[in-house]
Amino acid sequence: MGAARRYVTPLGDVIALPALRHRRRRRASRRRSSIRAIHFLITRRLFVLVMASADMTCTPSNESHTPGRVKHSKCWDYFTMMEGRKQVQCKTCLLTLTYHKSTTMMNKHLNRKHPNMLSLEDSHRDTTDVRIKKEIKLTIPKVRRRRCAQDRARSITGLLLQVIVKDLRPLDLVNGVAFREFLSFLEPGYSVPSVVYFEKMLEEKYSEVKQQCIAELKKASGLSLSCDVWNSAAVDAYMSVSVHFIDEDWQLRNFLLESTNVLESHTPIVIRQWIEDALQRFEVEPAKIVSMVHDTGENMSAAARLLEEAYSWKPVQCAAHSLQLIVKDHGISKLPALDRAVDVARQLVEYFRKSEFALSQLSVREKEYNIIECPLVVDTPSRWNTTFDMIDRLLELRVPIAAVLGDMAVMPSWPSAPMELVMPQQWDMLMELKTLLEPFVHATAFLGSETHVSASTVPVLVKGLIRALEAVHYTLDGVEVVDSPHIQQLKERVKWQLEERWKFPTAPHVDFLLYAAALDPRFRGLKFLSGPDADAVRSHVLAKAIDFNRQDPSANRDPSVVKPTIIHVSGLDQLFAGFSDFADDMEVAVVGSSDIEAIVYKEAEQYFNEKQTPRGVNPLVWWRDNQSRLPYLSRVAKQVLCLPATSSPADKIFSTAGLDFMRLCTSLHPSHLNMVIYLNRNMRECSGQD
Hints:
- Helices cover about 55% and strands about 10% of the residues.
- It contains 26 helices and twelve strands.
- The strands form four sheets. The protein has a five-stranded mixed sheet.
- Strand 11 and strand 12 form a beta hairpin.
- The radius of gyration is 41 Å and the shape is extended.
């Protein structure tokens, strides 16, 4: 232990402490001495080897050299300087050469007359260098690599799994040579596990998150589904189903249940059976589901009708798919002039993408006109909003594009160029088309969001789009411009399609959207409907609230519900019932009703007679703050407002990033592919992270 030191405390106690610090210093001193000794031995060994190599290679003598500057060339080992420093003589063949203060002639003489002498010397030098390197390698001691701690190695492995899941990378990423070298540099003592180990970790993480998802779904009072069918990059059909609900804190939540490859034909019966199996695997009771949003395909619509007949789920068509059909399939594609303008714009973008020279010239012109460089956009046939992005980018770069197209040095590389795009009328048509599509882009982006209530806004946005189409002019640089005949025809077709697909309130698939709008405090006035239609929607909402609270036994036992006093009116007041305002009708309706009916009517009276809240108010926050005042009506609102307006949650799985992931995951088993996509969508939702 070494000599001990004494330490006197403030209270006078004497404590003996071992001289640990001195022992550490002695260990460090011995370590430094060992390093210095090794360094000295290596240096001495290298010096001896180098001197031995120099003695062996310097066979000729330089004694005949005349004093002067140092001769560095090896040619002087075989030549002697003559008197007068004008000539040199070969020591082997005694040939005399003229000396011009250069060794060029001496090198040529040696290569022509004595080539073996130089090759032997070079070989001897190479052998000596190899021997020196081996001696150095044997002399330098090996440093043992420190192993990574077990806890740290476990943390690194968990983070690698998160990289695979969050960034949608294939599992064989861990087998990459460069990836392993990168990890070895960051953590030299860490050993990367095999793909089989990561597959086991993936399965365990999937089971863990799945149990958390099941526990959350059991707490929900009402659920809505969104289903969609998409094709991957390999033209494999994948079907996805997501569930949406509002939790106890009035937060909008959604989970992806499954996203798997369906090998069978996509008949309505197969789709229905697949959805039922997915719900059974996640222990979801069909009675909890109140609605289902789906795409506009005939097979999916037929499957939704089968599920409605079996479980009374309300089918709702995806608003984004409906707008796609209205704008692209039934609008632009039906008008040859507009369809040709869009096709020419698409060809122009493709030309710049394929011609490196034209693209470089476009970049030069953008700098000349002080325009920020931005890439051109190619539209996707299945997404009409990409057509808007393509037209918008072309109009933004109109001046540099026209300059490049007018340059004859560029145009010969495109002999089949649609030159009509350079004409002003084509640009004007694209400008009008962009102005017409802009409101639809805003509506689609708002409806596709998962962070706010969207289904209740569909009727309002549809009415707003119809109102925008009724205008016969648009504003360009502060000047009102009258629509061209082609744009007027497009407006008429789109307006007719909007009115037919969302015929409020008679269309069969819009009633649930109207219920959501009525229970949204921002639109509860139902101002987009006529008076009789609005009254009919309110009556349906009341009936739905009464039926729901009758079927739920816990509603009568809820201690937070304060039952209001039932107001009895006279017979004369009953004669005037139906001709007064909504509040009077509610008071009359409660006569002769049960307690639950009376309470629901009273809550509806309070709710519908209040003013609409501003559009910026979150309806879920409003219901959270008012659920104690409107307990029965809030139960229905929690079931209705969770419905999404689009099937975009399933759509986003197979977006551009998803398709790239499909190309990387060709070696994955379908079950592991479903697990990676499932964890990518649900890990953050279950952990509560933003």
